């Protein structure tokens, strides 16, 4: 077979791999001052999929989210949304408006606003300066906010200032803000850090229900929680994928045991 | 609570203005002052105890301009976290625009009697008016320029700074650099703005003598009215969804970005509006003090404005107004009695407020503090014990 034909076949294969993905990360590398945080990272997420990403501290999980959401630019590699939108060319606001929502590792809500206003600001719709200046709260918006309050179990905290919420409640509020954005893809960084066991359980349930009609990528250290999520797991190590599959499967992988679970 | 929220969202501007207690008090005082003070000056005879001397009316008018300037700084600093240390530049530019009009009004009554050229240009042997002085013989044009020029500068400056995501201390430093650069530029004689003497010896405004009590009373009223209007405008902005986005930017800028807002446009909007307000303040200030010179661009003055806001109470709008009055009254007092102590006092005041009254004077008034506010003393005790705990922790 000629070389040209081989390349063609390879391209065709890659195209096929891409075709049915909501998120396609291929060969992404990024270096900070000589330190390789991501090393030719590749993975794919299918529409409607719930995916857990685990890996030791410093594996590059948060950096991966930074790349997808436009905060950090990769040195090399492709990041595609809905198999054709090149995310490496867009900035944070554009990517958010495309339908990718992100929860930070450290819960980040608008502390001086009420829970209600936090959700209102996240509510999908006009983001323009003058739209915001002349915006009046509509009934449809109000209804959506009320529904989200119920989903995130914060109905009775509606008029509470976000600064007064517990750590776990802030995590939920941030997830609620993502939902208000109506994203197709949610990236959730360590959602159960600082939560009680029962809160953790509720959060797993919440994320599973969210994943029914959206794609969700969850980064988490808590193995019980990951087990509760009951989904495909990707193990990151030193900036690339070490193993992928069901949790039981990856837990048996000797390399995974060595770098992560065994310790 | 639900009911309250419903009303809060659904009623028009008037509704929430009535619920804005500090704002209502401010607006009432402004209305009362703009009636009583001119009456006390123009109608009450001079011997009476209720007579308001002209110097006092002018002084209060000057404070009103400072208050508007403080309001403009609070709008960006208190609500969006943009600490501008160069707002004096916008104020001065507004002042120069008005000053240019007042210079043209002098006509042939100058020392050299040239009907076209201001004295300083004749002195420099210039033969014709520079192009950028055209139009300033018209009052409306000067007023438009007093808003347009600061607004344009803020827009261009903000566009570059916010697009490059310059924030925090770096932004404060480049705003200082901006006002300093303008200070140096306006000092130059060949800029055509009167060099270090600036613009002065004004005679009249719209044909009315600037020396007459009735003109001064009108300027006082105009300042009070503009402060009131700008307060309401600023309140409209902060109470809108846009205002909530601004506060969100102040608290968690990256979260706002990842929520899909273009943070730079929001900052640009409020920064430009604020600069226009500062320009208006400057244009009202100049006819009342009778001079505008490059000293108004001094970086230290811009820092002083921020102190006014901090003293009054950042992020409340009316606190900024109060702070401008308190600090400037103190300044007038000190520079009269013991001028050498003024800067020490100002520095001490700033430190005292930062340590004891982090929410400013307004924050210490129970009716205006937040519901979970602690008393000043309790707050202080907590700070001290925290300080001890921290020291203990380190040891
Ligand atoms: N902006 C940056 N500049 C320099 N180094 C960085 C930067 N961001 C991340 N790193 C480094 O890249 C590596 C990967 O970091 P990252 O935050 O992605 O890890 P993580 O997998 O999210 O870890 P954790 O589980 O602790 O959250 C770390 O060693 C970190 O120090
Ligand atoms: Mg991380």
UniProtKB/TrEMBL annotation, chain B:
It comes from the Bacteria. InterPro entries: ABC_transp_permease, ABC_transptr_urea_perm_UrtC, LivM-like. GO terms for cellular component: plasma membrane. The keyword Membrane applies. Coiled coil: none annotated. Signal peptide: none annotated. One of its GO terms (molecular function) is branched-chain amino acid transmembrane transporter activity. Pfam families: BPD_transp_2 (PF02653). The chain crosses the membrane at residues 24-44, 50-69, 76-98, 138-162, 169-187, 217-234, 265-285, 305-329, 341-362. It is found in: Cell membrane. Its main location: membrane. Keywords: Cell membrane, Membrane, Transmembrane, Transmembrane helix. The keyword Transmembrane applies. This is Amino acid ABC transporter permease. It comes from Thalassospira alkalitolerans.
């Amino acid at each position: 077979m000629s070389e040209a034909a081989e390349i063609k076949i390879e391209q065709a294969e890659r195209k096929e791999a891409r075709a049915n993905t909501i998120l396609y990360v291929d060969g992404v590398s990024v270096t900070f001052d000589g330190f390789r945080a991501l090393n030719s990272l590749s993975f794919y997420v299918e529409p409607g999929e719930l995916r857990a990403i685990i890996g030791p501290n410093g594996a590059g999980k948060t950096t991966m989210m930074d790349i997808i959401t436009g905060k950090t630019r990769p040195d090399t590699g492709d990041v595609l949304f809905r198999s054709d939108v090149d995310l490496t060319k867009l900035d944070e606001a554009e990517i958010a408006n495309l339908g990718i929502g992100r929860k930070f590792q450290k819960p980040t809500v608008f502390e001086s606003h009420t829970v209600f206003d936090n959700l209102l600001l996240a509510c999908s719709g006009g983001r323009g300066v003058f739209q915001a200046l002349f915006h009046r709260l509509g009934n449809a918006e109000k209804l959506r906010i009320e529904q989200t309050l119920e989903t995130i179990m914060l109905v009775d905290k509606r008029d509470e200032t976000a600064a007064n919420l517990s750590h776990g409640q802030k995590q939920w509020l941030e997830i609620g803000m993502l939902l208000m954005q109506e994203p197709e893809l949610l990236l959730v960084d360590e959602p159960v850090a600082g939560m009680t066991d029962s809160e953790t359980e509720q959060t797993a349930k919440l994320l599973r229900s969210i994943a029914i009609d959206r794609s969700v990528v969850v980064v988490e250290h808590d193995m019980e929680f990951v087990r509760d999520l009951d989904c495909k797991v990707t193990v990151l190590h030193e900036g690339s994928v070490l193993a992928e599959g069901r949790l039981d499967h990856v837990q048996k992988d000797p390399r995974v045991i060595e770098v992560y679970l065994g310790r | 609570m639900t009911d309250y929220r419903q009303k809060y969202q659904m009623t028009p501007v008037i509704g929430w203005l009535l619920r804005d207690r500090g704002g209502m008090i401010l607006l009432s005082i402004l209305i009362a002052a703009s009636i009583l003070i001119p009456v006390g000056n123009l109608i009450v005879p001079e011997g009476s105890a209720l007579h308001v001397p002209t110097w006092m009316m002018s002084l209060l008018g000057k404070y009103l301009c400072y208050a508007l300037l403080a309001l403009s700084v609070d709008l960006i600093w208190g609500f969006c976290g943009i600490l501008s240390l160069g707002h004096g530049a916008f104020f001065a530019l507004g002042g120069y625009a008005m000053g240019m009009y007042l210079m043209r009004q002098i006509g042939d009554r100058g020392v050299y009697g040239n009907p076209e050229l201001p004295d300083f240009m004749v002195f420099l042997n210039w033969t014709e008016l520079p192009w950028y002085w055209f139009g300033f013989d018209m009052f409306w044009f000067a007023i438009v320029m007093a808003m347009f020029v600061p607004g344009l500068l803020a827009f261009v400056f903000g566009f570059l700074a916010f697009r490059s995501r310059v924030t925090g201390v770096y932004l404060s430093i480049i705003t200082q650099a901006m006002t300093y650069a303008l200070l140096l530029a306006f000092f130059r004689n060949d800029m055509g703005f009167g060099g270090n003497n600036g613009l002065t010896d004004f005679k009249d405004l719209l044909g009315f003598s600037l020396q007459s009590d009735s003109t001064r009373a009108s300027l006082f009223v105009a300042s009070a009215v503009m402060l009131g209007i700008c307060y309401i405008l600023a309140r409209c902005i902060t109470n809108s969804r846009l205002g909530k986005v601004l506060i969100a930017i102040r608290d968690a800028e990256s979260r706002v970005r990842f929520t899909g807002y273009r943070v730079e446009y929001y900052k640009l909007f409020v920064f430009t509006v604020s600069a226009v307000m500062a320009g208006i303040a400057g244009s009202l200030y100049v006819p009342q003090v009778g001079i505008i010179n490059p000293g108004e661009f001094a970086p230290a003055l811009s820092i002083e404005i921020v102190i006014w806001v901090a003293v009054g109470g950042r992020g409340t709008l009316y606190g900024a107004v109060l702070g401008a009055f308190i600090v400037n009254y103190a300044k007038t007092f000190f520079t009269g009695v013991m001028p050498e102590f003024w800067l020490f006092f100002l520095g001490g005041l700033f430190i005292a407020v930062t340590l004891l009254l982090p929410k400013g004077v307004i924050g210490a008034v129970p009716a205006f503090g937040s519901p979970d506010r602690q008393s000043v003393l309790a707050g202080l005790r907590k700070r001290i014990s925290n300080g001890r705990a921290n020291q203990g922790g380190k040891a």
